[in-house]
């Protein structure tokens, strides 16, 4: 009996897909989905869909995080779900606890382990974190990919939970930029966000660290980020 292992993470219309299989004759398998951005301090809905073999099984979900690029992973929490026999589509509530040591983490990783038809299954993918708050920071760059030496232009719009832009004249936040190693290279202090869209820019060095960079908007314990890539192309 062959089993196809299929792991999918879905976020804002983007799908991250990984597969492995025993042979070409695939009769059994599963699909696991999770938000790419997990909200701290509330339930996040995961989904585990099985096809073929529907025996009773257990699925353990582990959440890891890193405080910065060079740090080791820390196990934040784990939860085991019992999937009843015959249950094809299971919706799993996964409550993400606030972290004890810091409210900002570099990134995280969701790991699943379990069995299906007596065979082990496992998979993982990176996730990000967001706080549960009434404000949303929309961060956009003028393009997703840059060459060394180019200028990165970005804009920020702060809206409330009803998607209304902030109109407070004293509404400010700090913005900082980190390279793939977690080194903070640019910082904009006290940026005014109460007058609609705020635009700014910064230059890349001729030989920057290539990979995925992060732009983060931070105010008190409220942080939200976006990423862009730097490489020769």
Automatic annotation (TrEMBL):
Signal peptide: 1-22
InterPro entries listed in its UniProt record: A2M/Complement_sys, MG2
Keywords from the UniProt entry: Glycoprotein, Signal
Gene3D superfamilies (UniProt xref): 2.60.40.1930
Superkingdom of this protein's organism: Eukaryota
High-level lineage: Eukaryota, Metazoa, Ecdysozoa, Arthropoda, Chelicerata
UniProt subunit comment: Heterodimer of a TEP1-N chain and an TEP1-C chain non-covalently linked. Forms a complex composed of TEP1-N and TEP1-C heterodimer, LRIM1 and APL1C; the interaction stabilizes TEP1-N and TEP1-C heterodimer, prevents its binding to tissues while circulating in the hemolymph and protects the thioester bond from hydrolysis. Mature TEP1 and to a lesser extent full-length TEP1 interact with SPCLIP1; the interaction is induced by microbial infection.
Macroglobulin domain location: 138-230
Record-linked Pfam families: MG2 (PF01835)
Annotated function: Binds covalently through a thioester bond to the pathogen surface resulting in pathogen clearance.
Keyword set includes Signal: yes
Record protein name field: TEP1-F
GO molecular function: endopeptidase inhibitor activity
Record gene name: A1m_1
């Amino acid at each position: 009996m062959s089993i196809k292992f299929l792991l999918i993470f879905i976020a804002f219309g983007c799908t991250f897909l990984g597969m492995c299989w025993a042979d070409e004759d695939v009769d059994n398998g599963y699909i696991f989905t999770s938000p790419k951005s997990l909200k701290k301090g509330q339930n996040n809905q995961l989904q585990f869909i099985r096809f073929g073999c529907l025996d009773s099984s257990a699925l353990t979900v582990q959440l890891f995080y890193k405080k910065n690029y060079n740090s080791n992973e820390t196990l934040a929490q784990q939860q085991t779900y019992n999937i009843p026999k015959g249950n094809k589509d299971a919706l799993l509530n996964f409550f993400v606890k606030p972290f004890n040591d810091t409210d900002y983490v570099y990134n995280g990783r969701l790991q699943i382990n379990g069995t299906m038809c007596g065979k082990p299954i496992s998979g993982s993918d990176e996730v990000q974190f967001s706080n549960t708050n009434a404000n949303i920071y929309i961060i956009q760059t003028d393009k997703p990919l840059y060459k060394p030496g180019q200028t990165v232009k970005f804009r920020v719009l702060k809206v409330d939970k009803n998607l209304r832009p902030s109109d407070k004249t004293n509404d400010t936040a700090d913005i900082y930029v980190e390279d793939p190693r977690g080194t903070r290279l640019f910082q904009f202090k006290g940026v005014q966000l109460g007058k609609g869209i705020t635009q700014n820019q910064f230059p890349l060095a001729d030989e920057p660290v290539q990979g995925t960079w992060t732009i983060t908007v931070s105010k008190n314990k409220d942080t939200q980020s976006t990423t862009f890539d730097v490489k020769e192309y």
